[in-house]
UniProtKB/TrEMBL annotation:
The lineage of its organism: Bacteria, Candidatus Daviesiibacteriota. PANTHER family: GLUTAMATE--TRNA LIGASE, GLUTAMATE--TRNA LIGASE, MITOCHONDRIAL-RELATED. This is Glutamate--tRNA ligase. A motif ('KMSKS' region) lies at residues 212-216. GO terms for cellular component: cytosol. Keywords: Aminoacyl-tRNA synthetase, ATP-binding, Cytoplasm, Ligase, Nucleotide-binding, Protein biosynthesis. NCBIfam families: gltX_bact. It comes from Candidatus Daviesbacteria bacterium GW2011_GWA1_42_6. It holds the Pfam family tRNA-synt_1c. Residues 14-111, 113-281 form the Glutamyl/glutaminyl-tRNA synthetase class Ib catalytic domain. Its EC number is 6.1.1.17.
Amino acid sequence: MKTMDEQVRAFGTKIKTRFAPSPTGMMHIGSVRTALYAYIVARQNNGSFSLRIEDTDRSRFIEGSPEDIVENMNWLGLNFDEAPIFQSERKELYQQYAKELVEKGVAYEDEGAIWFKMPAEGKVTYTDLIGNRRIEFDNKTQKDFVLLKSDGFPTYHLAHVVDDHLMETNPVIRAEEWLSSTPKHILTFQAFGWQVPQYAHLPLILGTDRSKLSKRHGAKAVSEFRKDGYLPEAILNYMAFLGWTPPSGKELLNLGEMILEFKLEDVHVAPAVFDITKLEWMNGEYIRKMSGEELTQRLQEFLVDHPNRDKIAPVVPLVKERIKKLSDFVPLTDFIFEKPEYDIEVFNKIKVENQKNVLEKISQTMESFEKPWTAEEFEQAFRKLAEDLGIKVGDMFQLIRVAVSGQLVTPPLFESIKIIGEEETLNRVKEVVSKYPEF
RNA sequence: GGCGCGUUCGUCUAGAGGCCUAGGACACCGGGUUUUCAUCCCGGGAAUCGCGGGUUCGAAUCCCGCACGCGCUACCA
Protein backbone atom coordinates (compact mmCIF):
# COMPACT_ATOMS: atom_id res chain seq x y z
CA MET A 1 0.00 0.00 0.00
CA LYS A 2 1.27 3.43 -0.92
CA THR A 3 1.76 5.97 1.80
CA MET A 4 0.00 9.27 1.55
CA ASP A 5 3.27 10.84 0.62
CA GLU A 6 3.74 8.60 -2.35
CA GLN A 7 0.17 9.02 -3.47
CA VAL A 8 0.42 12.75 -3.34
CA ARG A 9 3.75 12.86 -5.06
CA ALA A 10 2.31 10.78 -7.84
CA PHE A 11 -0.19 13.55 -8.35
CA GLY A 12 1.88 16.66 -8.58
CA THR A 13 5.21 18.08 -7.74
CA LYS A 14 4.32 20.50 -5.02
CA ILE A 15 2.16 20.02 -1.98
CA LYS A 16 -0.32 22.84 -1.61
CA THR A 17 -2.88 22.98 1.12
CA ARG A 18 -5.32 25.58 2.19
CA PHE A 19 -7.62 26.55 4.98
CA ALA A 20 -10.98 27.53 3.53
CA PRO A 21 -13.39 28.80 6.16
CA SER A 22 -16.64 30.56 5.46
CA PRO A 23 -16.82 33.94 7.17
CA THR A 24 -20.07 33.32 8.98
CA GLY A 25 -18.77 34.17 12.42
CA MET A 26 -15.68 34.33 14.53
CA MET A 27 -13.12 31.60 13.95
CA HIS A 28 -14.32 28.54 15.80
CA ILE A 29 -12.11 26.34 17.96
CA GLY A 30 -13.04 23.25 15.95
CA SER A 31 -11.62 24.68 12.75
CA VAL A 32 -8.22 25.06 14.40
CA ARG A 33 -7.52 21.41 13.87
CA THR A 34 -8.41 21.51 10.19
CA ALA A 35 -6.18 24.53 9.70
CA LEU A 36 -3.39 23.00 11.74
CA TYR A 37 -3.27 19.71 9.87
CA ALA A 38 -3.32 21.52 6.54
CA TYR A 39 -0.53 23.75 7.75
CA ILE A 40 1.56 20.82 8.96
CA VAL A 41 1.18 18.87 5.74
CA ALA A 42 2.32 21.89 3.75
CA ARG A 43 5.25 22.54 6.05
CA GLN A 44 6.55 19.01 6.17
CA ASN A 45 6.53 18.78 2.39
CA ASN A 46 8.08 22.15 1.79
CA GLY A 47 4.79 23.11 0.22
CA SER A 48 2.63 26.16 0.55
CA PHE A 49 -0.29 26.96 2.76
CA SER A 50 -2.92 29.53 1.95
CA LEU A 51 -6.20 31.01 3.06
CA ARG A 52 -9.37 31.08 1.04
CA ILE A 53 -12.40 32.89 2.32
CA GLU A 54 -15.55 31.15 1.16
CA ASP A 55 -17.88 34.10 1.14
CA THR A 56 -20.25 33.17 -1.63
CA ASP A 57 -23.33 33.38 0.55
CA ARG A 58 -23.80 37.09 1.06
CA SER A 59 -26.65 36.64 3.51
CA ARG A 60 -24.53 34.71 5.98
CA PHE A 61 -21.50 36.95 5.84
CA ILE A 62 -20.51 38.41 9.20
CA GLU A 63 -18.63 41.68 9.23
CA GLY A 64 -15.17 41.32 10.71
CA SER A 65 -15.06 37.59 10.30
CA PRO A 66 -12.19 37.38 7.77
CA GLU A 67 -10.12 39.71 9.92
CA ASP A 68 -10.85 37.57 12.97
CA ILE A 69 -9.71 34.47 11.10
CA VAL A 70 -6.46 36.05 9.95
CA GLU A 71 -5.78 37.50 13.37
CA ASN A 72 -6.27 34.19 15.15
CA MET A 73 -4.28 32.21 12.62
CA ASN A 74 -1.43 34.62 13.22
CA TRP A 75 -1.83 34.31 16.94
CA LEU A 76 -1.70 30.54 16.65
CA GLY A 77 1.43 30.81 14.55
CA LEU A 78 -0.14 29.25 11.49
CA ASN A 79 1.23 31.53 8.82
CA PHE A 80 0.08 31.73 5.23
CA ASP A 81 2.41 31.79 2.29
CA GLU A 82 0.09 33.55 -0.10
CA ALA A 83 -2.37 36.41 -0.06
CA PRO A 84 -5.88 35.34 0.92
CA ILE A 85 -8.35 34.59 -1.82
CA PHE A 86 -11.90 35.87 -1.53
CA GLN A 87 -14.36 33.88 -3.57
CA SER A 88 -16.76 36.79 -3.78
CA GLU A 89 -14.20 38.59 -5.92
CA ARG A 90 -14.06 35.76 -8.43
CA LYS A 91 -17.71 35.68 -9.44
CA GLU A 92 -17.07 35.98 -13.17
CA LEU A 93 -14.57 33.17 -13.06
CA TYR A 94 -17.09 30.71 -11.68
CA GLN A 95 -19.69 31.91 -14.16
CA GLN A 96 -17.33 31.14 -17.03
CA TYR A 97 -16.65 27.68 -15.75
CA ALA A 98 -20.32 27.01 -15.14
CA LYS A 99 -21.01 28.05 -18.69
CA GLU A 100 -18.31 25.69 -19.86
CA LEU A 101 -20.11 22.79 -18.25
CA VAL A 102 -23.37 23.79 -19.86
CA GLU A 103 -21.61 23.84 -23.21
CA LYS A 104 -20.20 20.42 -22.52
CA GLY A 105 -23.72 19.22 -21.88
CA VAL A 106 -23.15 18.07 -18.30
CA ALA A 107 -24.95 21.04 -16.79
CA TYR A 108 -28.15 22.89 -17.61
CA GLU A 109 -29.91 26.08 -16.72
CA ASP A 110 -33.17 26.11 -14.83
CA GLU A 111 -34.92 29.05 -13.16
CA GLY A 112 -31.84 31.20 -13.47
CA ALA A 113 -29.53 28.69 -11.82
CA ILE A 114 -27.09 26.30 -13.41
CA TRP A 115 -27.43 22.69 -12.34
CA PHE A 116 -25.07 19.80 -12.62
CA LYS A 117 -26.68 16.82 -14.27
CA MET A 118 -26.08 13.63 -12.31
CA PRO A 119 -25.21 10.62 -14.44
CA ALA A 120 -27.95 8.02 -14.17
CA GLU A 121 -25.47 5.18 -13.99
CA GLY A 122 -22.14 4.38 -12.46
CA LYS A 123 -20.40 4.80 -9.17
CA VAL A 124 -17.96 7.23 -7.65
CA THR A 125 -15.19 5.57 -5.73
CA TYR A 126 -12.22 7.10 -4.04
CA THR A 127 -9.82 6.42 -1.21
CA ASP A 128 -9.92 8.83 1.66
CA LEU A 129 -6.53 9.62 3.12
CA ILE A 130 -8.01 9.42 6.59
CA GLY A 131 -8.08 5.77 7.50
CA ASN A 132 -7.11 4.89 3.95
CA ARG A 133 -10.68 3.80 3.46
CA ARG A 134 -12.33 3.12 0.19
CA ILE A 135 -15.54 5.05 -0.14
CA GLU A 136 -18.17 4.39 -2.73
CA PHE A 137 -21.32 6.17 -3.85
CA ASP A 138 -23.83 4.99 -6.36
CA ASN A 139 -24.75 7.74 -8.80
CA LYS A 140 -28.36 6.55 -8.70
CA THR A 141 -28.63 7.81 -5.14
CA GLN A 142 -27.31 11.25 -6.03
CA LYS A 143 -29.38 14.17 -7.23
CA ASP A 144 -28.72 17.04 -9.61
CA PHE A 145 -27.30 19.98 -7.70
CA VAL A 146 -26.82 23.68 -8.22
CA LEU A 147 -23.43 24.91 -9.42
CA LEU A 148 -24.28 28.55 -9.92
CA LYS A 149 -27.04 30.23 -7.98
CA SER A 150 -29.49 32.59 -9.64
CA ASP A 151 -27.77 35.51 -7.94
CA GLY A 152 -24.70 34.70 -10.00
CA PHE A 153 -22.65 33.34 -7.09
CA PRO A 154 -21.32 29.80 -7.14
CA THR A 155 -22.33 27.20 -4.59
CA TYR A 156 -19.65 25.62 -2.46
CA HIS A 157 -19.53 22.69 -4.86
CA LEU A 158 -18.52 24.70 -7.91
CA ALA A 159 -16.29 27.08 -6.02
CA HIS A 160 -14.40 24.27 -4.32
CA VAL A 161 -13.70 22.46 -7.58
CA VAL A 162 -12.70 25.53 -9.56
CA ASP A 163 -10.57 27.06 -6.84
CA ASP A 164 -8.81 23.96 -5.71
CA HIS A 165 -8.04 23.12 -9.31
CA LEU A 166 -6.68 26.57 -10.00
CA MET A 167 -4.80 26.67 -6.71
CA GLU A 168 -3.52 23.17 -7.36
CA THR A 169 -4.61 22.13 -3.90
CA ASN A 170 -3.55 18.64 -2.98
CA PRO A 171 -4.48 17.08 -0.70
CA VAL A 172 -7.83 18.67 0.12
CA ILE A 173 -8.12 18.60 3.91
CA ARG A 174 -11.58 19.38 5.25
CA ALA A 175 -14.12 18.28 7.83
CA GLU A 176 -16.05 15.06 7.47
CA GLU A 177 -19.35 16.85 7.06
CA TRP A 178 -18.21 17.20 3.43
CA LEU A 179 -17.79 13.51 2.91
CA SER A 180 -21.33 13.07 1.62
CA SER A 181 -20.80 15.78 -0.98
CA THR A 182 -17.57 14.35 -2.31
CA PRO A 183 -19.14 12.45 -5.23
CA LYS A 184 -20.51 15.78 -6.47
CA HIS A 185 -17.03 17.22 -6.38
CA ILE A 186 -15.30 14.29 -8.00
CA LEU A 187 -17.85 14.18 -10.78
CA THR A 188 -17.39 17.89 -11.35
CA PHE A 189 -13.61 17.60 -11.53
CA GLN A 190 -14.06 14.83 -14.04
CA ALA A 191 -16.58 16.78 -16.08
CA PHE A 192 -13.98 19.51 -16.48
CA GLY A 193 -11.40 16.90 -17.37
CA TRP A 194 -9.31 17.89 -14.38
CA GLN A 195 -7.21 15.74 -12.08
CA VAL A 196 -9.13 14.84 -8.93
CA PRO A 197 -7.23 15.73 -5.77
CA GLN A 198 -6.67 13.46 -2.80
CA TYR A 199 -9.21 14.00 -0.04
CA ALA A 200 -8.69 13.84 3.67
CA HIS A 201 -11.95 14.12 5.58
CA LEU A 202 -11.23 14.82 9.21
CA PRO A 203 -13.54 13.21 11.74
CA LEU A 204 -15.99 15.53 13.37
CA ILE A 205 -15.31 17.12 16.71
CA LEU A 206 -18.20 16.57 19.05
CA GLY A 207 -19.56 18.33 22.08
CA THR A 208 -20.21 16.43 25.30
CA ASP A 209 -23.68 15.56 24.02
CA ARG A 210 -21.98 13.90 21.05
CA SER A 211 -23.40 16.21 18.43
CA LYS A 212 -21.28 18.36 16.17
CA LEU A 213 -19.34 20.87 18.23
CA SER A 214 -20.91 24.31 18.18
CA LYS A 215 -21.20 27.50 20.19
CA ARG A 216 -23.72 26.07 22.58
CA HIS A 217 -21.20 23.49 23.84
CA GLY A 218 -19.16 26.15 25.55
CA ALA A 219 -16.39 25.52 23.06
CA LYS A 220 -16.45 28.72 21.26
CA ALA A 221 -14.47 31.17 19.23
CA VAL A 222 -10.69 30.99 19.27
CA SER A 223 -10.63 34.60 20.41
CA GLU A 224 -12.57 33.65 23.50
CA PHE A 225 -10.11 30.96 24.44
CA ARG A 226 -7.44 33.57 24.02
CA LYS A 227 -9.34 35.93 26.26
CA ASP A 228 -9.70 33.17 28.83
CA GLY A 229 -5.95 32.87 29.05
CA TYR A 230 -5.24 29.82 26.94
CA LEU A 231 -1.90 29.63 25.19
CA PRO A 232 -1.70 29.10 21.43
CA GLU A 233 0.75 26.21 21.86
CA ALA A 234 -1.65 24.44 24.22
CA ILE A 235 -4.58 24.94 21.89
CA LEU A 236 -2.59 23.62 18.96
CA ASN A 237 -1.32 20.67 20.95
CA TYR A 238 -4.73 19.77 22.31
CA MET A 239 -6.55 20.12 19.01
CA ALA A 240 -3.90 18.10 17.18
CA PHE A 241 -4.43 15.26 19.63
CA LEU A 242 -8.14 15.08 18.94
CA GLY A 243 -8.01 12.10 16.65
CA TRP A 244 -4.28 11.71 16.45
CA THR A 245 -1.50 10.39 18.68
CA PRO A 246 2.14 10.83 17.74
CA PRO A 247 4.02 7.58 17.11
CA SER A 248 6.47 8.61 19.82
CA GLY A 249 3.63 8.49 22.32
CA LYS A 250 4.58 11.86 23.80
CA GLU A 251 1.86 13.63 25.71
CA LEU A 252 3.06 17.11 24.83
CA LEU A 253 4.22 18.20 21.40
CA ASN A 254 5.06 21.60 19.99
CA LEU A 255 4.41 22.63 16.41
CA GLY A 256 7.91 21.75 15.24
CA GLU A 257 7.65 18.29 16.73
CA MET A 258 4.24 17.79 15.17
CA ILE A 259 5.66 18.64 11.78
CA LEU A 260 8.22 15.90 12.35
CA GLU A 261 5.78 13.27 13.56
CA PHE A 262 2.46 13.96 11.88
CA LYS A 263 0.98 11.78 9.17
CA LEU A 264 -2.51 12.23 7.80
CA GLU A 265 -2.88 8.50 7.53
CA ASP A 266 -2.46 8.18 11.30
CA VAL A 267 -5.51 10.32 11.95
CA HIS A 268 -8.51 8.48 13.33
CA VAL A 269 -11.72 7.86 11.55
CA ALA A 270 -13.91 8.10 14.63
CA PRO A 271 -15.17 11.43 15.90
CA ALA A 272 -13.73 12.87 19.11
CA VAL A 273 -15.34 14.70 21.99
CA PHE A 274 -13.90 18.08 22.89
CA ASP A 275 -12.93 18.04 26.57
CA ILE A 276 -11.93 21.38 27.96
CA THR A 277 -10.59 19.83 31.17
CA LYS A 278 -7.73 18.26 29.33
CA LEU A 279 -7.04 21.44 27.40
CA GLU A 280 -6.81 23.22 30.73
CA TRP A 281 -4.36 20.66 32.08
CA MET A 282 -2.23 21.02 28.99
CA ASN A 283 -2.29 24.79 29.27
CA GLY A 284 -1.02 24.47 32.83
CA GLU A 285 1.75 22.19 31.63
CA TYR A 286 2.88 24.77 29.10
CA ILE A 287 2.79 27.51 31.70
CA ARG A 288 4.95 25.47 34.06
CA LYS A 289 7.42 24.66 31.31
CA MET A 290 8.05 28.32 30.61
CA SER A 291 10.84 30.29 32.15
CA GLY A 292 9.92 33.02 34.60
CA GLU A 293 10.91 35.70 32.11
CA GLU A 294 8.86 34.16 29.36
CA LEU A 295 5.81 33.78 31.56
CA THR A 296 6.16 37.35 32.76
CA GLN A 297 6.21 38.58 29.22
CA ARG A 298 3.20 36.50 28.21
CA LEU A 299 1.34 37.68 31.26
CA GLN A 300 2.12 41.29 30.50
CA GLU A 301 0.90 40.87 26.95
CA PHE A 302 -2.22 39.23 28.27
CA LEU A 303 -2.96 41.64 31.12
CA VAL A 304 -3.24 44.72 28.94
CA ASP A 305 -5.55 46.53 31.33
CA HIS A 306 -3.95 45.41 34.56
CA PRO A 307 -3.19 48.48 36.72
CA ASN A 308 0.04 46.98 38.01
CA ARG A 309 1.16 45.38 34.81
CA ASP A 310 4.72 46.58 35.26
CA LYS A 311 5.05 45.18 38.75
CA ILE A 312 4.13 41.58 38.18
CA ALA A 313 7.61 40.18 37.52
CA PRO A 314 8.45 39.27 41.15
CA VAL A 315 5.03 37.69 41.62
CA VAL A 316 5.31 35.38 38.64
CA PRO A 317 7.54 32.73 40.27
CA LEU A 318 5.02 32.47 43.10
CA VAL A 319 2.10 31.64 40.83
CA LYS A 320 3.72 29.70 38.02
CA GLU A 321 2.78 26.36 39.52
CA ARG A 322 -0.60 27.57 40.65
CA ILE A 323 -2.23 28.81 37.47
CA LYS A 324 -3.64 26.87 34.58
CA LYS A 325 -4.65 29.84 32.50
CA LEU A 326 -3.13 33.30 32.23
CA SER A 327 -6.38 34.73 33.55
CA ASP A 328 -5.95 32.82 36.82
CA PHE A 329 -3.21 35.25 37.69
CA VAL A 330 -5.58 38.06 38.60
CA PRO A 331 -7.74 36.58 41.39
CA LEU A 332 -4.72 34.85 42.88
CA THR A 333 -2.58 37.96 43.16
CA ASP A 334 -4.90 40.93 43.51
CA PHE A 335 -4.22 41.16 47.24
CA ILE A 336 -0.54 41.70 46.57
CA PHE A 337 -1.16 44.87 44.63
CA GLU A 338 -4.20 46.24 46.42
CA LYS A 339 -5.43 46.09 49.98
CA PRO A 340 -8.05 43.32 50.00
CA GLU A 341 -11.65 43.36 51.16
CA TYR A 342 -12.06 41.51 54.44
CA ASP A 343 -14.96 39.34 55.41
CA ILE A 344 -15.51 37.92 58.89
CA GLU A 345 -16.89 34.75 57.31
CA VAL A 346 -13.43 33.98 56.01
CA PHE A 347 -11.92 34.37 59.46
CA ASN A 348 -14.64 32.14 60.89
CA LYS A 349 -13.43 29.30 58.73
CA ILE A 350 -10.31 29.12 60.87
CA LYS A 351 -11.02 27.29 64.07
CA VAL A 352 -9.20 29.50 66.54
CA GLU A 353 -10.71 30.97 69.72
CA ASN A 354 -10.25 34.61 70.65
CA GLN A 355 -9.13 35.52 67.17
CA LYS A 356 -8.95 39.21 67.88
CA ASN A 357 -6.56 38.54 70.68
CA VAL A 358 -4.40 36.26 68.57
CA LEU A 359 -4.36 38.80 65.76
CA GLU A 360 -3.20 41.39 68.24
CA LYS A 361 -0.31 39.14 69.23
CA ILE A 362 0.52 38.58 65.57
CA SER A 363 0.62 42.30 65.03
CA GLN A 364 2.92 42.79 68.03
CA THR A 365 5.21 40.02 66.90
CA MET A 366 5.52 41.57 63.48
CA GLU A 367 6.35 44.91 64.99
CA SER A 368 9.13 43.33 66.97
CA PHE A 369 10.90 42.16 63.80
CA GLU A 370 13.88 44.02 62.48
CA LYS A 371 13.66 44.99 58.85
CA PRO A 372 14.13 43.37 56.52
CA TRP A 373 12.15 40.43 57.81
CA THR A 374 13.69 37.06 57.12
CA ALA A 375 11.95 33.80 56.39
CA GLU A 376 13.61 32.00 59.28
CA GLU A 377 12.80 34.61 61.85
CA PHE A 378 9.26 34.91 60.58
CA GLU A 379 8.60 31.22 60.70
CA GLN A 380 10.26 30.60 64.03
CA ALA A 381 8.55 33.50 65.74
CA PHE A 382 5.11 32.42 64.68
CA ARG A 383 5.72 28.78 65.43
CA LYS A 384 6.65 29.82 68.92
CA LEU A 385 3.66 32.13 69.20
CA ALA A 386 1.40 29.28 68.17
CA GLU A 387 2.91 27.11 70.82
CA ASP A 388 2.61 29.78 73.50
CA LEU A 389 -1.03 30.36 72.67
CA GLY A 390 -1.78 26.66 72.37
CA ILE A 391 -3.03 26.76 68.79
CA LYS A 392 -1.99 24.75 65.79
CA VAL A 393 0.86 26.03 63.66
CA GLY A 394 -1.25 25.63 60.55
CA ASP A 395 -4.04 27.74 62.02
CA MET A 396 -1.56 30.40 63.04
CA PHE A 397 -0.27 30.84 59.52
CA GLN A 398 -3.77 30.70 58.11
CA LEU A 399 -4.78 33.54 60.37
CA ILE A 400 -1.82 35.60 59.21
CA ARG A 401 -2.66 34.72 55.63
CA VAL A 402 -6.23 35.93 55.95
CA ALA A 403 -5.16 39.07 57.81
CA VAL A 404 -2.78 39.94 55.01
CA SER A 405 -4.73 38.76 51.98
CA GLY A 406 -8.35 38.38 53.00
CA GLN A 407 -8.16 34.89 51.48
CA LEU A 408 -7.64 31.33 52.67
CA VAL A 409 -5.73 30.38 49.55
CA THR A 410 -2.79 32.41 48.32
CA PRO A 411 0.66 32.03 46.88
CA PRO A 412 3.36 31.35 49.52
CA LEU A 413 2.75 33.65 52.46
CA PHE A 414 6.17 34.97 53.35
CA GLU A 415 7.20 35.55 49.74
CA SER A 416 3.96 37.41 49.13
CA ILE A 417 4.54 39.55 52.18
CA LYS A 418 8.01 40.45 50.97
CA ILE A 419 6.50 41.78 47.76
CA ILE A 420 3.71 43.61 49.54
CA GLY A 421 6.28 45.13 51.85
CA GLU A 422 6.73 44.99 55.62
CA GLU A 423 5.12 48.38 56.17
CA GLU A 424 1.99 47.69 54.18
CA THR A 425 1.69 44.22 55.69
CA LEU A 426 1.83 45.59 59.17
CA ASN A 427 -0.70 48.27 58.34
CA ARG A 428 -3.10 45.67 57.05
CA VAL A 429 -2.75 43.50 60.14
CA LYS A 430 -3.18 46.49 62.43
CA GLU A 431 -6.26 47.59 60.62
CA VAL A 432 -7.70 44.10 60.84
CA VAL A 433 -7.06 44.09 64.59
CA SER A 434 -8.73 47.43 65.12
CA LYS A 435 -11.79 46.71 63.02
CA TYR A 436 -12.29 43.02 63.84
CA PRO A 437 -14.92 41.61 63.50
CA GLU A 438 -16.61 44.40 61.48
CA PHE A 439 -14.80 45.34 58.31
C1' G B 1 -37.09 8.01 4.91
C1' G B 2 -32.54 7.79 1.55
C1' C B 3 -27.23 7.94 1.29
C1' G B 4 -22.64 7.93 3.96
C1' C B 5 -19.39 7.43 8.07
C1' G B 6 -18.46 5.61 12.81
C1' U B 7 -18.50 2.27 17.62
C1' U B 8 -11.71 0.20 23.17
C1' C B 9 -12.16 3.10 30.64
C1' G B 10 -16.43 9.37 31.96
C1' U B 11 -12.97 11.88 28.01
C1' C B 12 -8.51 11.66 24.48
C1' U B 13 -6.31 7.29 23.06
C1' A B 14 -2.42 2.49 22.55
C1' G B 15 -3.66 -1.67 19.96
C1' A B 16 -2.51 -3.75 12.53
C1' G B 17 -4.41 -12.64 15.14
C1' G B 18 -0.94 -14.89 20.20
C1' C B 19 3.48 -9.63 23.74
C1' C B 20 -3.89 -7.94 26.23
C1' U B 21 -5.86 -11.45 33.01
C1' A B 22 -6.44 -4.59 27.21
C1' G B 23 -1.43 -0.13 28.18
C1' G B 24 -0.93 5.44 28.70
C1' A B 25 -2.88 10.51 29.52
C1' C B 26 -6.81 13.79 31.56
C1' A B 27 -10.51 13.60 35.23
C1' C B 28 -11.78 11.12 39.87
C1' C B 29 -10.42 8.68 44.78
C1' G B 30 -6.59 7.58 48.55
C1' G B 31 -1.52 8.43 50.57
C1' G B 32 3.30 11.20 50.99
C1' U B 33 6.04 16.14 50.83
C1' U B 34 4.08 21.11 52.49
C1' U B 35 2.24 27.16 57.15
C1' U B 36 -2.92 27.43 52.59
C1' C B 37 -3.51 26.22 47.56
C1' A B 38 -0.83 24.25 43.76
C1' U B 39 3.42 21.62 42.00
C1' C B 40 5.93 17.01 42.71
C1' C B 41 6.01 11.65 44.15
C1' C B 42 3.38 6.93 45.25
C1' G B 43 -1.03 4.03 44.93
C1' G B 44 -6.32 2.89 43.48
C1' G B 45 -11.00 2.25 41.01
C1' A B 46 -12.44 2.70 35.96
C1' A B 47 -13.49 -0.39 29.13
C1' U B 48 -16.51 -8.76 29.36
C1' C B 49 -12.94 -3.78 23.35
C1' G B 50 -21.62 -1.75 20.93
C1' C B 51 -24.42 -6.67 20.28
C1' G B 52 -24.89 -11.48 17.68
C1' G B 53 -22.92 -14.88 14.50
C1' G B 54 -18.84 -16.82 11.86
C1' U B 55 -13.28 -17.76 10.20
C1' U B 56 -9.06 -19.61 13.24
C1' C B 57 -5.56 -23.87 17.62
C1' G B 58 -6.25 -18.63 19.07
C1' A B 59 -9.86 -12.21 17.67
C1' A B 60 -10.26 -5.80 20.48
C1' U B 61 -7.70 -7.08 15.95
C1' C B 62 -10.41 -10.67 9.79
C1' C B 63 -15.72 -11.57 7.58
C1' C B 64 -21.18 -11.08 7.85
C1' G B 65 -25.60 -9.31 10.17
C1' C B 66 -27.93 -6.19 13.66
C1' A B 67 -28.27 -2.13 16.98
C1' C B 68 -27.05 2.55 18.22
C1' G B 69 -24.75 7.32 17.26
C1' C B 70 -23.43 11.10 14.08
C1' G B 71 -23.18 13.63 9.29
C1' C B 72 -25.37 14.90 4.63
C1' U B 73 -29.96 15.00 2.20
C1' A B 74 -30.68 23.89 0.65
C1' C B 75 -30.14 28.30 -5.42
C1' C B 76 -25.73 27.32 3.39
C1' A B 77 -21.12 26.33 3.74
